[in-house]
Amino acid sequence: MIKKLIYQSRATEVSDASSRMISMYQNAGLTQDTHLATIFGDLQTESDRLIRAIKRMKTESELEGLDEIRDGNIRSLHYLVLGLVHHPNPEINQPASVVYEVLEHYGLTSLITENYGSESSLIQSLLGDLAKPEIQEAAAKLSGFDQCVARLSDSQANFETARVAYEFEKARESNEVNATTLKLQVIELINQKLVTYLRAMQAVDASTYGNFVNSIAEVIETTNEAVKRRRKKKKATA
């Protein structure tokens, strides 16, 4: 008998399973079954919503990673200049002190702990101040300074590009629920409607539905096995 999908499946696993089921249905030649068509119409709608939610989740994760890179470049610049402030040679520590005053004005903590928008504003302002002629004159004497600023500038630009894309998607899908909730909705649709119906149809008309039911059962079994393997691995490492 066709089994039900395990609720502990990941959102990406459920999305993959539902996409495979939809593809199988489209090639199964069962369009004359209006009830099955309705189920798969609903599944297509919910699967599309889940895919969009996963995409938003992935974009947000990428944004966090880009912010970490940006924060790392801020730290590198800060500690480079701070180290040069304590250099024994006045020809280095004096211009370093000029540059460090600018960095100190913004503060390392503020530059890496504010919200995304505030951080971006502060970094853009900092880069503008560091580009001023009097600061550039002092910075020219600091080995490694230009490279650190270039890396910070690049990481800031990369972050902003990603943030604009994320905010656009977030606003466009502002009424959508999160991936976890949508995953459960797709599982409910598969388990309570699709599986229940296919069990009945296999019993009354195995010649028509048998191959399709077996194909759907295989998708569910493959997904469930992935969950079971993950559980075993978690227990083994606990």
Description:
The chain is mostly helical and 238 residues long. It has nine helices and no strands. It has helices at 11-26, 34-85, 90-106, 108-113, 116-130, 133-139, 145-172, 179-204, 206-237. The longest helix has 52 residues, at 34-85. It is elongated. 24% of the residues are buried. The model has no long low-confidence stretch (mean pLDDT 92).
Broad structural category? mainly alpha
Q: How much strand content do the residues show?
A: under 5%
Question: Element order, helices and strands?
Answer: HHHHHHHHH
How would you sum up the global shape? elongated
User: What can be said about the biggest beta sheet?
Assistant: none
The chain-level mean pLDDT equals 92
What is the domain total for the residues? Answer: 1
Can you give keywords for this protein?
238 residues, mainly alpha, 9 helices
Q: What's the short version?
A:
This protein is mainly alpha-helical and 238 residues long.
Protein topology:
Blueprint: H1 11-26, H2 34-85, H3 90-106, H4 108-113, H5 116-130, H6 133-139, H7 145-172, H8 179-204, H9 206-237
